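User: Okay, second chain of the day. Same drill as before: sequence in, structure tokens out.
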Amino acid sequence: MNPVTKSFLEGAAHFIAGLGLWLFGGGVEIPVITLTALGVVLMAIGVLLVAKGGYLTVRARRDAARAREQAAEQV
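Assistant: Same drill. Structure tokens below.
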């Protein structure tokens, strides 16, 4: 799988799972951490993964543009 697509999908999955925990996990008590706090952490990780996918997309386009410019200069 393409790293960009993988990053976007993982980020979206983390965000959706975190959102579900944040919205619906308030009534569940766990001794170590609350599910709402875990949901916020998962949403933050999801946002970071989506941002990484965006960065990889921009970098790939920039590298492709540079390669085209260099090929045009050599002709």
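The CA atoms of residues 21 and 39 lie 5 Å apart.

User: Thanks, on to the next one.
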